[in-house]
Write the structure tokens for this entry.
Amino acid sequence: MKSKKFTVLFVVATILLFTALFVMKGTAGNLEPNAPPGSTMVTLGQLSSQIAAISSPVEKVIRGVITLDANDVAVESIQNLSSTIDPNRSVVMLSDAIASDHSGTATSWMARNGACLVALTPTAITVRAEGLHATTQKVSYQIIVYK
């Protein structure tokens, strides 16, 4: 029984040794091209631009912050955009919270939900938010324009 185990271990060790030697020998072959590029081949730069055009449907992203005046009731603000967009091919994301700077002896920030999109035109965005008493409010936005 011992000699059978020894034989199996010897065979396995021999196979592993030959496999390791074969892998270390590096028989990958010549990596130099044998001919110049053909007429149907493209450069890596051309291929990258084709992949980017397919995989990224986003044309541009516009980010900004709208400051809303202090008010105890809901307040609206219109902000002009830095470039013209197509509202029909756009998605708007507003920040989850409105940030207000409550100045006093120490500066503190208060956050509160309550912002919504009122309108999006080719040149402006209008946002409405709950009133936060006597301080200004800031709402960040991101407009994603698709191709």
